[in-house]
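Project standup — Tuesday

K.O.: blocked on the structure for the chain from last sprint. Re-posting the sequence here as requested.
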Amino acid sequence: MGHREQGVRPGAERATAGDWPAVLVATVVLYLACVLALEAAGLWEVTQESVERPDSLLWLPILAPVGALCGAPVFFAAVGAFVLPTLALARRAGRGWWWVPVVAALVALVAALATAALGAGRAAVLWLWPVLFVSVGGAALLARRVTLGTRSGARPGLLVSKVAGCGVLAVVAVHALGAAAVRTGVIDAYRPPRLSPAHMTGAWSDGRGGTLRLAGDGTAAADRLLSEDFDHAFGDVRCDGSGTWTHEPADDPWDQTVTLDIGNCSGYEWRISGTRDRPKLAYQYGDPDAPRWYSLTRTRGTADTAGCGTGHASCAGR
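H.V.: unblocked you, prediction finished:
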């Protein structure tokens, strides 16, 4: 015979559709899971090589309450699309609580595969499946627990507030610990290499047949670099020619730039990224609200690059 949970009256495992405390707690859990996922993504992002400075982690606590108000309909809809079906299928499979994570894993896998089939790619399955499994499974388990508790006489408002309170504390703790880890260097945040002009002389390649050569005397030569003009989109034409280049240093390595003035080449201001051993130059093109970057990687340098070795003043701060 199946074991009945202590204090639960017969029929407590009935569907949660229409049970507002369960629906509300599931919505709160999905929202808090989304915020935690964004915090984790932000911490991961600051460690990745980038041309642009990552968004500050400080904005999330400010925008989180706004997101709760504006995104409430979306999260209610997600409860109806994922959490309630998970509970219904788990109830049909058996009365044990363990059926909830089992069904949640299958629901999350189907959703991840559907997303990949729509064009997101295989990588979507690798990160979307565990995120959906944890969020949907956790929301379904807590919603089930709220249902059992309210049908046993517990006050629904108290149960919902406990879940929300614990979730908010988790969000605050992750944010505070993550920010402290970045500030103290426990999490190694990416910063562009601080380059000197001597370290930048040499040949740069886009890996697609285009090259740029920067000389120590300030002259530059382009050979088949991707470009754009009024009649052609970026990449439809290539440019050749000679001109000049200058390096604009900055106290903050994110603000370093290289300016190129080469005849018919559209790229003018380039950002510095990559690593000390493999620096890159990147030029922004396309929609400013959704920029894309054309990158060149240094293939070799001159003898002057030795000047960026240990102890060289112009390369201090790497």
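K.O.: great, moving the ticket to review. Confidence is low (pLDDT under 50) at residues 1-18, 301-318. The helical segments are 20-45, 59-70, 72-93, 99-120, 122-151, 156-184, 197-200.
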